Amino acid sequence: MAALILFLMETLLFYLYEMPLEAWAYSSVFILLIFGGWIILDGVQQRKKYKQLKNIQKEAEVYLETEHFGKPENAVEKRISESCRDAGKTVGKCQAGSKMSDQ
Predict the structure, then answer these.
(1) Residue 88: left if φ>0, alpha if ψ -120 to 50, beta else—which one?
(2) DSSP class of 41
(3) Which of 9, 57, 58, 65 has its C-alpha lying 20 to 30 A from 84's C-alpha?
(4) Reduced to 3 states, what is the DSSP secondary structure of residue 76?
(5) What is the pLDDT of residues 54-101, one digit of tens each?
(6) What whole-number distance in Å separates Cα of residue 50 and Cα of residue 47?
(7) Which residues touch 90 (CB under 8 Å, ≥6 apart)?
(8) How far apart are CA 15 and CA 23, in angstroms?
């Protein structure tokens, strides 16, 4: 929007002072390059901010999952709980029995 207003002001001034068309074209290209660079930099900053927000969102989801479901089990605990479940025992009795058999 700012580029359009600046472009219109430039056109009006060049028309009122009856300046040559080449001078108007040169300054118009200069204005377009400045605002084009500004738009590109703004897009890069927006993408960077978007990636940061996505990372924060992922971290929050992981935090909420671990908070809701508890601490994830390591591989050994998972194997013991699966074998206990297959054997039909409760996890506490199965772990106590496996500790006794280890001795």
Answers:
(1) left
(2) H
(3) 65
(4) helix
(5) 998 888 877 766 666 665 556 667 777 777 777 765 545 555 544 444
(6) 5
(7) 84
(8) 11
Q: Which residues of 10-40 are buried (b: 16+ CB within 10 A; e: fewer)?
A: eeeebeeeeeeeeeeeebeeeeeeeeeeeee
The CA–CA distances, whole Å, from 12 to 6, 26, 44 equal: 10, 15, 33
Tokens describing residue 87: 């054997």
Q: Which of 3-7, 41-45, 84-88 has the lowest mean pLDDT?
A: 84-88
CA distance readout (Å), 83 to 53, 74, 96, 97, 102? 41, 14, 13, 12, 15
Q: Can you read off the two tokens belonging to residue 97?
A: 């029995």
Long-range contacts of 28-32 (CB under 8 A, 24+ apart): 31/3, 31/6, 31/7, 32/3
Rounded-to-integer distance, Cα 41 and Cα 28, Å: 20
